[in-house]
Amino acid sequence: MVMNYDMMKTAQRKYNFDLYYRSIDMINKLHFEMIKLYSGDVKRIQHFCKVHSYAKLIAEMENIDIDTLFIIETAALTHDIGIHCCEEKYGSCNGKLQEKEGPAIAKRLLADLHFEEQVSERVQYLIAHHHTYDDIDGIDYQILVEADFLVNLCEDELSIQAIEQAYKKIFRTDSGRKLCREMFHLDF
Ligand SMILES: [Fe+2]
């Protein structure tokens, strides 16, 4: 059968639709696996759920393309994946140790869930750098850091001065800045 233009457009739409739902399905599976991995550690489960929610919100408000959104969501769910390993191995879960231990654990989990190698590699890079703020090299990295800050600024009960400082130093996207200003009622 020879396809005419309308048939091709319909097929393309269906293909995009299938891809979109396949992405949602993969993210939901990863989300549940992360909850299983952190089983019983409800505070940390809620931490990554919040970071995922804000990362997705910022990305969608910024009209980020669907492939980058997929990387952002995957990284937001897994960004602290090294935390339990660090506690067992070093008795500490500081940011640098998490950056060191997290990528290998994420690599195994993402391979088990059949995430593409290219996605996994970028996510491992983001996990390995998400506490490093002086060399942010992409919008996925920027949004992950902003979402993590939105949650940590509240969870760590920081002073308004510290929040204002973080706002000026960290937040770069219009949507992240808007959310931060509204959330903490900043007077800028
Ligand atoms: Fe975090």
**Tally of DSSP β-strands:** 0
Query: Would you identify the CATH H-level superfamily?
Result: Hypothetical protein af1432
Specify the number of helices: 9
**Would you give the CATH topology?**
Hypothetical protein af1432
Which bin fits the share of residues in helices? over 70%
Mean pLDDT: 93
Number of spatially distinct domains: 1
Tell me which oligomeric state these chains represent.
Answer: single chain
Give a description of the structure:
This protein has helices at 5-37, 42-61, 66-78, 83-90, 95-112, 117-129, 139-155, 160-170, 174-183. It is an all-alpha fold and 188 residues long. It has a single domain, classed as Hypothetical protein af1432. α2 (42-61) packs across α7, α3 (66-78) runs parallel beside α7 and α7 runs parallel beside α9. The longest helix has 33 residues, at 5-37. It starts with a helix and ends in a 5-residue tail after the last helix. The model has no long low-confidence stretch (mean pLDDT 93). The structure holds fe (ii) ion. Fe (ii) ion binds at residues 47, 51, 79-80, 148. Residues 47, 51, 79-80, 148 line the site of fe (ii) ion (FE2).
Walk me through the topology.
Blueprint: H1 5-37, H2 42-61, H3 66-78, H4 83-90, H5 95-112, H6 117-129, H7 139-155, H8 160-170, H9 174-183
Helix pairs in contact: 1-3, 2-3, 2-7, 3-6, 3-7, 4-5, 5-6, 7-8, 7-9
The structure holds fe (ii) ion (FE2).
The site of fe (ii) ion has 5 residues, from helix 2.
